[in-house]
Every structure is written in C-alpha cells, then in structure tokens.
Amino acid sequence: MTRIPVLAAAKLSPLYSALLERHFRFIDRLHEGDAAAFAALAPSIRALAASGDSRVGAELIARLPALEIIAVMGVGYDGIDLAAAKARGAVVTHTPDVLNDDVADLALALMLSAARQLPAADRWVRAGRWAREGAMPLARKMAGARLGLVGIGRIGQAIAQRAAAFGMTIAYTARSARPALRYRFEPDLIALAAASDFLVVITPGGAGTRHLVDAAVLRALGPKGILVNVARGSVVDEAALIEALEAGTLGGAALDVFADEPHVPERLCALPQVVLSPHIGSATTATRQAMAELACANLQAHFAGRPPPSPVPECR
Ligand code: 8YV
Rounded to two decimals, what is the model's pTM? Predict the structure, then answer.
C-alpha cells in the first residue's frame, strides 16, 4: 500500500515524528531545503504536521494543491493561517484537553516560584549566602491572595481549581460570563488587574489577543502585583512589561512564553523579581506522548474517511 505523504511544516517533537514515520510517508521539512525536490513532491502532499508554535503561512499552503489537513501537536494554533487553510478546504486539528493538567500545574508552580522567590532562594543557598548573611528577605503569601484569570477555557478552569485548593479568591475575564462557574466574572481587564495580586494569562494567542495585557493593565496590577503568562508571548506587550518591572510599577512576573521564542530579552533575564521557563507548559513525557498520539489520530481518522477527533473550533 502506498503511504500518504505528510510534510512536517517545522521541527516536530520526536514523539510525533516517530508516529508519523510509522503510519505515513513522513517528509521532514523538505520545503526548507531542496527546492527542486520539494517542487516535485508538493503536488502529492495531502497533510501538514505542525506543532503549537509552528508557522504555517498562506505561502506554504499555496504550494500544496492537494492539502487536506493540517494536524497541529499543540492546543494553540495561532501560527496557522486559518483563512488560507479554509480557502483550500483543509481542516485544521489540534490537541486540546490532554495538556490541561500540565499547563495548570506549571501556572501554579510559576505563581509559587514568584511568590516564594524559589529561584532566588535556590541561588541564596548555592552562593553560600545563607551561611554568610543569614535568612533571605521575606516573601509573599499565596493563601488568601486574589487571582485574576485572563481566560477561563479548559486550562483556565484547571488553574482555578488548583488555586482554590491554595485558598485563593478567584475572578476572571472573558468575552462573556460563564454562569455555571462559581468564580467572579469581571468584564473589564483593567478592573480585574486592579483587583488582583496575581494576574494569570491563559487565553489563546493570535491577532485578537495581541498585546491585550498592555501598559495600562500592568499599571493597574501595580507594584505588588505579579504577572504570570503560560499562554502566548504575543498576548503581553513585552516592552511595556520590561519597563514596568524596571520602574518597579509592577511587582514581579513569571513567564513561560515570550514574544520572540526562543529569544528572551537580556533586560528580562537581568531582573531578579522575574521567574523564567522555556515554554514548558505541556513538557512532560506523558503529556507530550498523549499530544503526539492525538495529533496522529486526527490524521488517521481523516484519511480513513472519519471526522478527526479534535478539529479546531473554527473547523467544526
Ligand atoms: C508546545 C503549546 O508549543 O500546546 C501548545 O499550544 O504551546 C505547546 O504545548 C508545542 O506545541 C509542543 O509540540
């Protein structure tokens, strides 16, 4: 049986490429290299495989006349040109739900790290400062603190559940209120920031949320407020964030995502009140395996003539 050609649009997780190699004719980023070889193969390519941070633009889609499906290993698909995919009649799939726990866990870990200054505490011990200087400066208490969630989708709700167990009070902003949830809805982001000790960003990226968290929101969060971002770097105005942190008009930040990954501004790295991680929200072996399997299951279902299990909402 001839195998269906699937092109990797970008560097993929080895867990995903291993599955693609097993079930399809896996073509690894040929469009980035040998132009003649790609031109020869392009008309036969029926699927693109991508990850949450891949860019799949209209230009690549235009070069693939037989494209039927773009299977993203990731919940976010802000790098995919949905309009171009739709115009071609290609379905776009992603991997929601299987990563909710891990991303929510990381959000809490970052909140705790920022509040209790864990990276600084670790440095304090390693540098011998405990023995030399004694106790380190006192930190912030999480229990009883006010959490503001920017987004209350599946991951946002998983964060809220965990924060409730830590004794925090919880409010959220979203396009509309979710009356089934017992948390306070605040339609205005600036008002939410002003009423929060921790503002946690967990809303999709893309043009609709670009720089949603801007200088005014950061000012409202204030000199004691802590910003946590486990969504997309694009949602926060990074230049405004750095300025607010340097000026002390914002208390601290804990960031897993950045405007220009994997590049993190040196000014951000220089700030002791900032906790940084390299986009590891879903980065556990079990979850990445589940994401790879779901991404591959979407391709398999599509080519078996069944509806893929997890199309993006715009393709449902
Ligand atoms: C990774 C993510 O970037 O799920 C997402 O949207 O941001 C991440 O899990 C990546 O997609 C893993 O392959």
Answer: 0.97
